[in-house]
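$ fold --in a.seq
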Amino acid sequence: MGDASLCDVTFKGGVEFQNAKFAKKALFLGATFAGSTYFSDMTFGEAADFTSANFMHGAVFTGSTLIGPAIYSHAAFVDTGNWSEAEFRDRADFRDTSFTLGDKESPSAVFSLARFYKPGEIVFEDVDLDRAVFFNCDVSQVWFKPSVNWGRRPRHGQLAVFEETASNKVAEDYFFQVEGKRNYRAIAQTYRQHKKNYDSRLDYWTANEFHFGEMEMRRLAGPTDGPLLQLRRWWHRNLGFVAWYKYASDYGNSYRKPLLWPFGTLLAATLLFPITGLELKQAISANAASVTYSSVWNRQDSWTNNFWTEAKLIGKSGITAIDTATFQRTPEYTPVYPRGRVVAVFETLLTASLFALFLLAIRRQFRR
């Protein structure tokens, strides 16, 4: 076929253009496709212009090759627009493109395995992509304008890609679920590409939100084979290193958590040291007795006096915990070896790690 100029035309029935070629321009400006629309395995030559077109039952461009510019600005898709395995060899405009879904479980736009030969000239602007699928599609250089709307995580509010929350059926249909298991590693790659994209444009705030999603996928992925698989998977998701990274700082996105956790650490050490025992470092006698909760309690004394004695002990323990956390070399009281020293070592390691996470979060949030 040569040029196709079908502007402002209404196609009342289904439209199928498959395994054919528009040698030059394919112009469908303002066209209305009332039925199902298929442009599968098509080749569009000089240009494919669907500006202000209306697709009442979605459109399928699966496997199509768009050699020239592909324009979908102001187009409206009432159902899914599918560009999986399509090749965009020139620029593509998705400006003010509308995706309206009748089926809430379906994706709005699918670009799985699509290839962008000039990714810097692929533009999405004023588009709702909260249900778009970019699985196995390199979007690290695609131009997503600030007006693009992404989905959000229900609990934390960070940005989320649809592949993570889509139903199992959608995941199976678009290959990010295999044998009943969500492919979290591959979804992490999608998050990583979005993070790289926004990092390269110096939009660190948005990049950090996609970083959260990438790390969540790494936490959920876990081991895939070997003995005690279910137990190891549960451990990885809830008590593994990545899980603690989340608990401590939201994967480096929160600088408040690393500030709050040390207070809990100091409180725990303060309450534990009197159980293991404290001793005065400047004690003259080598056999100086350690003080504990039970050793300072005098059954012959009044409850009030004992209460204040215990309070003073906790105060001394608190100072010891602060000295330990701040690497003081000459504390007045030291934890009794060996159990108290074990608590002190854990406190030191934990507070140092939390301080490092605090600095990392500050850098991620306020870098320039």
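$ fold --in b.seq
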Amino acid sequence: MIVLYDNHTGSLDMHSATSEDRLEMSGRDTDRLIDALTSNWQAEMRGYHTYNTLSQQESDPQRRRTLRNLALAEEHHAGLWATRLLDLGAPAPEYEGTEAGDADSLANRIGGQELALRRLELEESRDIARYGRQIQELGDEPSIAILKEVLADEADHYLTLGGLIRHHLPATPLEPELAQQALNELVAEREKGQPRAASWIGDAIYGVNDGLGAIFGIVSGVSGATLGNAHFVLIAGLAGMIASALSMGSGAYLAAKSEREIYEAEFARERDAVEYNEAEARELLSLTFQVRGLSAEDADHFVGHIAEKKEQLVEALARERLHMTDKSLSDPWVSATSGAISTAIGAFIPVVPFFFMAGIPAILVAAVISLLAHFAVGAAKSLITIRSWWSSGLEMTLVGAIEGVVTYAIGIGIGKL
């Protein structure tokens, strides 16, 4: 039976569904299918109103006709989805948007109609990707037949919009603020990029720092409690050294491994994004370059060269999103080794005097050596920070001195209990 559907009013002239039109599905599957098709209908109706409004605002006759034809095609798609929904026993869908669709939204007013058309081009690419996934997921032959018809039209729409945009690109670069706003919209639902991974030099410096600070505190406290008894200081110091080295090594390994896993997961996400929606991936990268001052035409041309190889496009997206590459990631075993060894070296320094002496002389020598080592480590930190070596060294020395005095005093108190 023929179903007449008025897309403008959302009303039905008649509705009947034959048993041949229905699939034998569970209630849950039917509800899921109806939800998906209703969403499709809403998207197509929003597209119809958007293109229709833009056509009315367009002064160029040829572009106006093109936009009007796109509106009529979206209206036709909405009618296909409405018919299928009625065949599934769903109520007539009601349009939830405005009569202007997305044409008058703030996002489209920023940058004028050209930027609005670029966003619509992205919407078409998203629809293509979404409908492509639905072909695999819906499991409903009548709906799949509609999807194939709509997909072919959407691909033509994408090319048509691309022609409108590329032949009317502004000669001057897009304002960085506008490009940044568009870029922010595209990445709004994405997570922030991960910080750059520390090199093995950073692991080593912080390992020495951690071992030196922790064991100097232990040595000071035990010395205060035992009046510098070398036997007890060595036992506590060496045990602490081993524990600190293992802790730092395992922590560095897990941190580097986790960072690599995060990168690989994000890289996989970018690969999937390119696979399902290459157009959006290209636009994201293009806007990134426009933020840096390239014109839209130059950015698109540059991205076109990058996208000649999909893996190259994925790598470029991952690099821009995460601010890192696979080569910049730390090797977990290198991080673990450098962290453990450097921590052991730093932790061993305060213990050395107690191999050769005991009592107050050993405490004083250990304090001097440890403070000198603190200064050296602080100065070395300037290699991976922007601070001056002497400022960083003095700060580290002061921290070490306070730590030594406090733990020594606590040790004395405990020793008198």
